[in-house]
Amino acid sequence: MTRPPDLTVVVVPLLGGDDLGACLDLLPLGGVECIVVLRGDMAAQGTALARRYSAVRFLDAGDRPVPLRRRLGVEAARAHSGAQAQSSQARAAPSNCGPITASPRA
Length: 106
Known about the structure:
Blueprint: E1 7-11, H1 18-25, E2 33-38, H2 43-52, E3 56-60, H3 66-76, E4 81-85, E5 100-104
Parallel strand pairs: 1-2, 1-4, 2-3
Antiparallel strand pairs: 4-5
C-alpha cells in the first residue's frame, strides 16, 4: 500500500491563464501532493497544464463557487495536512500567489 503524502496543496485559480502555470512553478511539486480545482471554463487549460505538470491532479469543479471548489480539493486530498493557495494575482511571485492557508486533517 502506498503511504499518503505528508502535505497536500490545493490550488483554486481565480484567473487561470499564464498565472496558474507561474504559480505551479513556485511549488515544490516533487515533495507534495498538488491538486488544482478548475472552473468548468478552464478545462482546456487544465488539459494543457496536465501535460506540463504531470505530478499535479487537475479537477473540474464545473460552475461551483470558490468555497465549494476549495472543499472539493480538500476532500480529494490524501495527506494528513494541507495548504490552500488561491491564484489570483496578475503576476506570480513567491509573495503573490494568493493566500496560503494550512489546515491539519483529522
